[in-house]
Every structure is written in C-alpha cells, then in structure tokens.
Design goal:
Elements: E1 9-15, H1 19-32, E2 38-44, H2 51-61, E3 65-69, H3 76-85, E4 91-94, H4 106-115, E5 120-124, H5 137-154, E6 166-169, H6 170-176, H7 187-194, E7 201-205, H8 220-234, H9 241-266, H10 272-295, H11 304-335, H12 338-361
Parallel strand pairs: 1-2, 1-4, 2-3, 5-7
Antiparallel strand pairs: 4-6, 5-6
Helix pairs in contact: 1-2, 5-8, 6-7, 8-9, 9-10, 10-11, 11-12
C-alpha cells in the first residue's frame, strides 16, 4: 500500500519539565499552521513532571506529535540535534517549549524559506522592533554580553546569534551535522559556526515573552558552557569545549591541592609524604565532583553510579599521575630542562586523564 508523504515542516521542541506548556503550544501550532503539512518533535530529557507521558497521550490522538525521551543525557543543544536529525522534512524549525517564543512567526518563516534564496530565518529580540521583555535584568545583561561575544568572535552579522528560535532548510543541518558540538544551550551558534562556506540568513523581529509556567534553566554553569563552546568554535574544533572545561577544573584542583597541602603541613603538623597524599586525594575528589557537575553535566552520574564513577576517576587519575612522572623523568634525563620536562609530563597526564575518564568514567565517546 502506498503511504502518505512525510511532512514539509518539522518543529523541534526541546523540553525539560514543561508538562503544563506543551498542550497550549500544540494548540497554537494547530491554529497557526493551517494548510501546512507539519509535525512537532518534542525531545524530552526525562522530565520529572511527566512531560513525556503528557506528550505520549497527546500523540495518541494526533500523529503529528512525536516525543523522543532521552535517558542518561541532558542538554538543550544536543536535544535539538537529535530532533533535527530525526526529521525527513525539507524545512526544520527550533522553538522552546516554554511559550516565550512568538510562534506566530512560524508561517512567515516558512513562506520566506519557500520563496527566497535564504538558508535560515532567525527570530531576533534585538532588531529595531524586537524586545527581550521576558528576560529578567540579570538574564538580559548575560544575553546582551553573549550576543556581543558571539558577533565579535564569530564575525557574525546576525543581531541575535544566541536566539533559540529559528527555521532553516534541512541542507543546513546536513552540512553542519558532523561538526556540531551539542554543548550547552546555544544551538544556533553551534550551527552558524559549523556550516562550511557562506550561509545566507534573514531575521525577523519579535518580542520575547514571559514564562507561562515552570522556571528558567539558565545558571552560571550554562554561562561557562557557552564560553567553552565559543572557544571551541574559534579554535576550529581543535580545542573541544569539554577538554577546556576539564582543564579549568584541573586548574582549580591544583589550587585545592596546594591549600590542603599547606594546611596539613602547618596546621596539622603532618609529614610531607602524608600531607601530599591527603592533598592529592582531596584534589581528586574535588576534580571528580566538579567535572561531574560542569564538564559532564549532560552525562551526570547520580546515586551509586556517582560512587562507582568516583572510584573509576581516582584509579584513572592515579595512572595518569604515574605516566606524568615517568614522562617528565625521561625528558629531564635527556634534556636537563626541568620546566620543559615538567610541563610535558603534566600535559601527557592531563590528556590521558581526559581521554580515559571520558570513556570509562562517564561512558562518553570522544569526537
């Protein structure tokens, strides 16, 4: 039997605890996209409020509603990528599930892509008639700083490169797919910096609304992920964002190590070997929990898995420390250059720790 052709438009909606918002969003899409053949793909990061169950019930009565439920991983950008790659439609939109984006722009975006030689249409809060009304004063400052950084570092003319609301031709995702990082929440920057060659873009102004329900997911860890993503894209992908975050955590661990070492030597009167051993163990625990919270927050380990991860992390870092010393020893014997030997040993140890803990502690393939 011949089957009906697939939709012309896929709307990708990343969700985390948006149960009360998904129904109203679907109703609005139904009213707005009359005459268009569309589907909505919700990518849910195992929400605690049963968002996925709500979507499953809605999907039973409407074949246009699909839900991809993810376990063991989180992150807005990576959720968007999974939804985008699940689509066969020639046009793909990304919109948040919190009702802050102005969904009434969707028909206009679709018409522009159909009629104009444009690759992507971006909804902008910072064009003349747009406004970030729904942002708190703190988020407004962070948003404008993020826009300024992205435009300066990536040399983009788009007024709102951190927008989470846009529509594109599927070819854009196909070209960028292998280069996408999937880090943090700024999927548009990831796309813009990952597409080889020129990309034609058009912007439409809109007013960013206040939340209907739920709470914002923005925190300072999100800001750090954003900075790491920009650094990765500026380096052409040679400095992965997770490696940069892993290195930053390691630097903080060195400070912790020295503070504990000093306290044990002076305040506790411990011998050097004992003090160094305690400081090393404390620094390892510090690095593990900070990496679990920051570097690998999208693969965060909890419960007994977190304890097993700690043991794995300390075992691997112990191996890295041995390799560090052996490499430094041999290089010093060959060159008599202590700084070069020490730095080289530390670099080899850090790379080994990053590679092995990524694969064995957090179970993540390197790319």
């Amino acid at each position: 039997m011949p089957s009906k052709a697939g939709p012309e438009l896929t709307i990708v909606v990343p969700t985390l605890n948006e149960r009360d918002n998904v129904g109203p969003l679907i109703d609005r899409l139904d009213r707005l996209l009359v005459g268009a053949d569309w589907e909505a793909v919700f990518v849910d990061d195992d929400s605690a409020d049963d968002t996925a169950e709500r979507l499953r019930n809605l999907g039973r009565g409407d074949r246009r509603i699909r839900c991809i439920r993810r376990f063991g991983r989180r992150g807005l950008s990576s959720a968007c990528i999974e939804g985008i790659l699940s689509s066969s439609a020639p046009y793909i939109a990304v919109i948040d599930g919190d009702l802050q984006h102005d969904e009434t722009l969707l028909p206009c975006m679709l018409n522009i892509l159909k009629q104009e030689q444009t690759d992507i249409v971006v909804a902008s809060r910072y064009m003349a008639s747009g406004a970030p009304d729904g942002l708190s004063s703190r988020r407004r400052v962070l948003s404008r700083a993020g826009v300024w950084l992205a435009r300066a570092l990536l040399k983009s003319d788009i007024t709102d490169p951190v927008s989470g609301f846009f529509m594109m031709r599927s070819e854009v995702a196909d070209k960028a797919g292998a280069r996408l990082s999937g880090v943090g929440t700024k999927i548009l920057i990831d796309l813009l910096a990952s597409v080889p060659g020129p990309l034609s873009a058009m912007e439409l102004p809109y007013r960013f609304r206040g939340r209907n329900s739920g709470s914002s997911k923005l925190d300072w860890l999100t800001v750090l992920e954003y900075l790491a993503l920009l650094a990765e894209k500026m380096s052409g992908g040679y400095l992965p964002s997770k490696f940069l975050l892993f290195g930053a955590v390691g630097a903080s661990g060195m400070v912790v190590h020295l503070v504990v070492l000093r306290l044990m030597l002076v305040a506790a009167g411990t011998g050097f070997v004992g003090a160094q051993s305690i400081a090393t163990a404390v620094a390892m625990v510090w690095n593990y929990f900070l990496n679990n919270t920051l570097t690998y927050r999208d693969y965060r380990l909890v419960g007994w898995a977190a304890l097993r991860g700690l043991l794995s992390f300390m075992a691997i870092c112990g191996l890295g420390a041995v390799i560090n010393v052996l490499v430094a020893r041999d290089l010093y014997a060959m060159t008599q250059m202590w700084l070069f030997a020490g730095a080289s040993g530390a670099a080899v140890g850090a790379l080994l720790n990053y590679a092995l803990t990524s694969m064995f502690t957090w179970g993540r393939r390197l790319s």
